[in-house]
Design goal:
The chain has 394 residues and is an alpha+beta fold. It has 18 helices and five strands. It has a five-stranded mixed β-sheet, with helices on both faces. Helix 1 crosses helix 2 (61-77), helix 1 (8-53) packs across helix 3 (83-95) and helix 14 (240-255) packs across helix 17.
């Protein structure tokens, strides 16, 4: 086969054009998925509120509806429809009601038009849809939601309507990513503006993008909310080293005997509007408890212990089954040149139980030694495969 010479300038232009098409298509896909998902969640919230109106005279009716719906939807669709998520959808509809979403220049509501179903029937006043009606036109409804669902969830944590409107408006006007929005809310930009003498300058400075603010299309699709909505498994690690260490440690713990039973890896949990990932979850058969394992590539700190106790409190409330003992945490720190392993036993009922756990669980020094040995072996393998990597890192 004769090799044809390709003009560098011609190829460079084609390459850049194709890259531009792929990147813009990915960004459009991420925006569309988020918009449709947000529209669906708003519609779910609307229907929950509508169903509550018939039983508003009964105390706790709304909470009972959400609890029952969460159980049924989780059984049918899996993740993403727990009580906390459904409560967020309900709060979302209440914070962005139809009058605000569908307001037009003529002053007339477009809600009736956009919420009409393909059967030609419209929602009734209490939010219920006539029997036999098909689903709403979510693409049309989605056009009204210009921020991603994660942004609306973050805005729900803003207590006052005025501040929430301000952050939403600025996010739209300045094109803030969810990370930028989160930073501005966390830094109380709205309150600082009220005290500032030069509001324009403060707003301009707030709009400056910081390292890590930009969200790639891949990250947007991997957003935990989107993964739940699309029913895609979320099992990826931030680095190859961490992933390899976690996998080896899982194998190592399982090889210590038949006490450890593997439950899951990179298991996600949501507290308020923040997502966390637990590296490994085991069940210890003799202790009859969950073992939460968290790996840190760095030195152990009190913040690591605090985060582990957060995980344990969550696991005790949401993951622990009837008849099981309280969960125990194992914090692994793989700092270069040293490794540590620490059990978090402070959540146990008393010191006697904690002492019993210590006699049954593997020795911390044994796990730390294996962790360090594995880290060194992985780094040596990496340097053998990529000889220039060590020179670049040093």
């Amino acid at each position: 086969m004769t090799k044809l010479l390709i003009a560098p300038d011609d190829y460079a232009g084609l390459h850049d054009a194709v890259v531009g098409v792929v990147e813009s298509a990915r960004q459009a896909a991420a925006r569309n998925v988020n918009a449709v998902m947000t529209a669906a969640y708003w519609e779910i919230g609307r229907r929950i509120v509508g169903s509550e109106q018939g039983g508003k005279a009964r105390a706790g009716y709304g909470q009972a509806i959400i609890a029952h719906l969460a159980e049924d939807l989780t059984s049918r669709f899996g993740r993403g429809f727990g009580r906390a998520n459904l409560a967020s959808m309900r709060a979302f509809y209440l914070a962005w009601p139809e009058g605000d979403i569908f307001q037009t220049l003529s002053g007339k509501s477009a809600a009736h038009r956009n919420l009409q179903t393909t059967s030609g029937k419209s929602p009734s006043a209490d939010g219920a849809v006539a029997t036999g009606a098909a689903t709403s036109d979510y693409l049309s409804l989605a056009s009204h939601f210009t921020l991603p669902w994660s942004a609306y969830v973050r805005l729900l944590s803003v207590k006052t309507a005025a501040a929430r409107t301000f952050y939403e408006t600025e996010a739209l006007r300045q094109g803030w990513s969810v990370r930028q929005l989160d930073r501005q809310i966390g830094s109380q930009l709205y309150e600082r503006l009220a005290l500032s003498r030069n509001k324009a300058a403060l707003l301009r400075k707030a709009g400056d993008e910081q390292p890590g603010d930009a969200v790639t299309p891949e990250e947007a699709i991997r957003d935990p909310f989107v993964l739940e909505f699309l029913d895609i498994r979320d099992e990826y690690s931030e680095s190859d080293l961490e992933a390899a260490l976690i996998q080896h440690l899982a194998d190592f713990l399982l090889e210590l005997g038949d006490d450890f039973a593997f439950i899951g890896r990179q298991r996600r949990l949501r507290i308020d509007d923040t997502w966390f990932r637990v590296d490994l979850v085991f069940f210890h058969r003799r202790l009859k408890c969950l073992v939460i394992v968290d790996l840190k590539v760095g030195r152990f700190s009190y913040a690591d212990a605090g985060q582990m106790h957060l995980y344990l409190n969550y696991a005790r409330e949401h993951w622990m089954k009837l008849g099981e003992n309280p969960p125990v945490g194992l914090i692994l720190c793989a700092e270069k040149g040293a490794a540590e392993a620490h059990y978090a036993l402070d959540n146990l009922p008393n010191k006697i139980v904690a002492a019993e756990y210590r006699t049954v669980l593997p020795d911390e020094r044994l796990i730390a030694k294996e962790l360090e040995r594995t880290r060194i072996a992985l780094e040596e393998r990496k340097q053998t495969a990529h000889p220039g990597a060590a020179a670049r890192e040093s």
